[in-house]
């Protein structure tokens, strides 16, 4: 595949600084091959060389010109990621490719089952990455992977930092110290979900008091909720923690993130998603998001409700595609139901952006959506779902 | 340049969804040429076709193989941006190239002066974009460009949204209504700084009261400050507002953003930057950022102090480069002084990440840095600046 490099030698290096200014150079791809092609003979010895191994399990592209080009681009993103991480001091991170056809023996041995996914082998754990295949998103995810699975909260400012990040599923436990048997069970459970679920702990009784935690107790925070749930039955074994988290890992409101976008999209409910678009940095979007959070908090125990919040700022290149596909205007907030099989959708009509629905009205609409279940019956209510009509019900 | 497309036809399309799932397709470049090459003959008629024209004023690359490749990649980023925005309903956004040598006549007529910059012509204003030349960052910036320059705050939730975004320079004014002469002056001033500085207004006396604003009064909010400054001498003309903002447009603490990274980096003070690395989503980083904000608030009127805060999460590909260039570990927060000519730097030694400097200690260090002015004298204090040593002074 060397001939591609001739044209792509400087792939993704687009930053420019004035002459004589330094300190902000975006890396250029240097053309060196760093990504290994893994086969039954070499995979063990190659994987032994690295602390972390990132393996792209890809479709076989032989004889398909379009797929081949696509694959070359993907390979380049991995090469750039490998080059950038080559400079990292602490960890050796290797990259490899396993072809669905030619590498089927390796795939079987390594337990790779979903083609087009990236598997990350780190510390005896296998992490599946089902996000954007872009160098920056993948590299940022890998920094999280190599961090410790449990973050310790030592003081009030760090506690404020803990509360500040409310967009992810997180847990916090209070333990005697790092050697505590119960902390070790907690740490082991953390490894199972790392880095998707964030685990925190404190050994400080004053911090624990502020978190309203008893010794060996763990609280579970759903995204965007104000109050946590205390996991019952302390002290817990690793298995008990794992089971609890698995039963609660689909939040009532969850944010679409580039590093897990496909994973979340594939986790539909009866082939549908309730999707809300809101730009947090915009006052209108912020307002709508506040209403949405209120509804989510009211319905946190409804297992049939999981709203995906998309901030258009995080996916600028998808905005015109969504506007066209869903026939909506993303300049204002939107909420709708999307059929993931054909991208058919119905949207709540919010004509006047100065007069948004109240949390009650929005809840009413969502209840109606859940009751009608499939889009055909929703569709019969017209192309656009009108709030006014709903309120007459 | 057609031959490039053969290999790059699917450039940047790396997202994959399971079979039968729709609604999340990252756009692929379709290979169609949309970016115009502007010359003295065609530029007027081409620019007339669009509401917004994005012009990349680039170096001449004839005879330089490396620069040519680099330029092709940049062109591709622009082509992808043009394609994505082609689907936009509201506005026609055109893209053009002006060659430093071949297009010098056009450059002169359009007033382009900084080579390697992007100039955006919209509503009789010229906006210089000096950020990352990547399709997503540029497209996101263009969405901001086509928004109204003044955002109206109608209710309490929107007011909360206004306060929520404290990372940018923003202004808010209270006016009678949209037709008010004073609002029109304010709106005209907004156009001069749009979209870099955010302008808000309210026509609601209750909201104005919560903002402590009198009629026709405008408050100026520096990033990360708790209290605004009221611009003196209300009511203001456009020129008075413009002058005030120009005198206050270098904040005490500012965040490096991809869309303006080069502009900020080039705005050094005596060839140096005080740079702080802190990951906001990490408790340690959050803690350090809180201390930094405290120092910035104490020193908001010091014209010689402007700290650049970099969240490593925003620049994942640059992290190993910075760690190598500055010889620091970005797993923990860092603060240092960087010479922009040679990227030479000295950093505050924070050995124990559990015991961060207090705001006073950090302020002491920064004062010392400003007093010593150039890195040579700082360097004589050793490779790393030790907090312990400083406190003995």
TrEMBL record, chains A, B:
It is found in: Sarcoplasmic reticulum lumen. It comes from the Eukaryota. InterPro entries: Calsequestrin, Calsequestrin_C, Calsequestrin_middle_dom, Calsequestrin_N, Thioredoxin-like_sf. Residues 1-20 form the signal peptide. It holds the Pfam family Calsequestrin. SUPFAM superfamilies: Thioredoxin-like. Keywords: Calcium, Glycoprotein, Muscle protein, Sarcoplasmic reticulum, Signal. GO terms for molecular function: calcium ion binding. GO terms for cellular component: sarcoplasmic reticulum lumen; Z disc. GO terms for biological process: regulation of skeletal muscle contraction by regulation of release of sequestered calcium ion. The keyword Metal-binding does not apply. CDD domains: PDI_b'_Calsequestrin_C, PDI_b_Calsequestrin_middle, PDI_b_Calsequestrin_N. Calsequestrin is a high-capacity, moderate affinity, calcium-binding protein and thus acts as an internal calcium store in muscle. Belongs to the calsequestrin family. This is Calsequestrin. It comes from Mastacembelus armatus (zig-zag eel).
């Amino acid at each position: 595949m060397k001939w591609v490099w001739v044209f792509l030698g400087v792939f993704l290096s687009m930053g420019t600084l004035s002459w004589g200014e330094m300190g902000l150079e975006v890396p250029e791809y240097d053309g060196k091959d760093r990504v290994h092609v893994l086969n039954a003979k070499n995979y063990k010895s190659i994987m032994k060389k690295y602390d972390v191994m990132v393996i792209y399990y890809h479709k076989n592209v032989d004889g398909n010109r379009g797929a081949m080009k696509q694959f070359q681009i993907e390979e380049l993103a991995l090469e750039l990621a490998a080059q950038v991480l080559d400079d990292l001091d602490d960890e050796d991170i290797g990259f490899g490719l396993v072809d669905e056809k030619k590498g089927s023996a390796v795939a079987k041995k390594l337990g790779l089952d979903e083609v087009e996914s990236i598997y990350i082998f780190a510390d005896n754990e296998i992490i599946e990455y089902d996000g954007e295949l872009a160098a920056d998103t993948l590299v940022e995810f890998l920094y999280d992977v190599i961090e410790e699975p449990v973050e310790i909260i030592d003081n009030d400012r760090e506690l404020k930092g803990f509360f500040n990040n409310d967009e992810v599923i997180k847990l916090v436990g209070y333990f005697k110290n790092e050697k505590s048997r119960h902390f070790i069970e907690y740490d082991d459970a953390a490894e199972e979900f790392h880095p998707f679920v964030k685990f925190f702990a404190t050994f400080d009784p004053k911090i624990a008091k502020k978190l309203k935690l008893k010794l060996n107790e763990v609280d579970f925070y759903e995204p965007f909720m104000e109050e946590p749930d205390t996991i019952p039955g302390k002290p817990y074994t690793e298995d008990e923690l794992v089971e609890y988290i698995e039963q609660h890992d689909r939040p009532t409101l969850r944010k679409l993130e580039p590093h897990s976008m496909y994973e979340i999209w594939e986790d539909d409910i009866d082939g549908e998603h309730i999707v809300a678009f809101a730009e947090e940095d915009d006052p209108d979007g912020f307002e709508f998001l506040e209403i949405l959070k209120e509804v989510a908090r009211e319905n946190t125990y409804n297992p049939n409700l999981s709203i995906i919040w998309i901030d258009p700022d995080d996916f600028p290149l998808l905005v015109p595609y969504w506007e066209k596909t869903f026939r909506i205007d993303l300049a204002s907030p939107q909420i709708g139901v999307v059929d993931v099989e054909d991208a058919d959708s119905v949207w709540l009509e919010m004509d006047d952006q100065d007069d948004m629905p109240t949390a009650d009205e929005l809840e009413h609409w969502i209840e109606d959506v859940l009751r009608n279940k499939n889009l055909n019956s929703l569709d019969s209510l017209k192309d656009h779902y009108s709030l006014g009509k709903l309120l007459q019900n």
